[in-house]
Design goal:
The protein is α+β, with helices and mostly antiparallel strands. It is built from three helices and three strands.
Length: 69
């Protein structure tokens, strides 16, 4: 059975999900090599929910490992 399609998030959704400012989201896009690339749909910018979730999970895992050191 195929995976369910990932939801598309706008910048407001990403801001709420990461609890950062709008400018921080765009800074992460510009400078964060591991931050998910946005998808352009016409004039809209969207991120895959799955990509944002994976980014948060990886950051939490890295933080947990650093806390153990």
């Amino acid at each position: 059975m195929p995976d369910a399609p990932s939801a598309l998030l706008d910048v407001r959704d990403v801001v709420r999900s990461l609890r950062v400012s709008r400018s921080t989201v765009y800074e992460l896009v510009r400078r964060g090599p591991d931050f998910p690339r946005p998808i352009k749909i016409g004039t809209s910018t969207r991120w895959l929910q799955q990509g944002i979730d994976a980014y948060v999970h990886a950051k939490r895992r890295n933080t947990d490992i650093e806390d153990l050191l």
